[in-house]
Design goal:
This protein is globular. The two termini are about 25 Å apart. Strand 3 and strand 4 form a beta hairpin. It has 7 helices and 5 strands; from the N terminus they run ααααααβββββα. By secondary structure, the chain is of the alpha+beta class. About 0% of the residues have low confidence. A 5-stranded antiparallel β-sheet has the order 1-2-3-4-5. The protein has a single domain, classed as Nuclear Transport Factor 2, Chain: A, CATH 3.10.450.
């Protein structure tokens, strides 16, 4: 039950991220408010996504979600202090494999979005702030679930670089497991581990 709730929240966070580029302008909480309604409705109306059409879901996430994420910052933060030790080629491979991992996670989560709504909590930020936390609650089917976003303002718009699901920040969660992998097998070991997990997951769905 807890896993299903987490997947539901991740699906809603994916829907929020799937905003058209122009929606990233203006206040960060309004950005979240507008797209959370529009895109969740679109997901609910898509029978293929609800049925678990992997290709359609992956295409949606890859096209609509990832462009609104500062992916380099997310990956470097997840790798932590080891990022500076990685070569440019290793950094590229880490980003590539981490992207596949997140796309796969969001793809599975989108199928869990049902009759849920996102309610914003008061924004604690100044108009001139370029980094903010937008706090929300997911309502529907039980107790409200915490879902928060860390956003940065870049090139006149907002991009997300971390997501808090049920009190756990995604980047921090991965940082702990990545550090263990690198400590045991090095940076190349982490890359190989991520590649193997992604390959196995893809094979299981084929």
């Amino acid at each position: 039950m807890l896993l299903k709730r987490i997947l539901t929240v991740l699906g809603l966070s994916a829907a929020v991220l799937a905003a058209p580029a122009l929606r990233a302008q203006g206040a960060p909480d309004e950005f979240i408010r507008t797209v959370s309604g529009e895109v969740i409705d679109a997901v609910k109306a898509d029978k293929a996504i609800q049925a678990g059409d992997t290709k359609r879901i992956n295409a949606l996430v890859d096209e609509k979600v990832m462009p609104h994420v500062n992916f380099q910052r997310m990956t470097s933060s997840a790798v932590g202090r080891f990022w500076r030790q990685a070569t440019p080629e290793q950094q590229k491979r880490l980003q590539d494999e981490f992207k596949v991992l997140l796309v796969r996670t969001y793809s599975g989560a989108l199928t869990q979005v049902k009759d849920h709504k996102v309610q914003l909590r008061p924004l604690r930020a100044k108009p001139e702030d370029t980094e903010v936390v937008v706090r929300t609650e997911v309502r529907g089917g039980g107790e409200p679930i915490q879902l928060d976003y860390r956003l940065e303002k870049a090139d006149g718009g907002w991009k997300i670089y971390d997501v808090n699901v049920l009190g756990v920040w995604l980047v921090e969660q991965y940082r702990s497991s990545f550090a263990q992998e690198i400590g045991a097998k090095g940076i190349d070991g982490l890359i190989a581990s991520l590649a193997e997990k992604n390959k196995s997951a893809a094979a299981s769905k084929s």
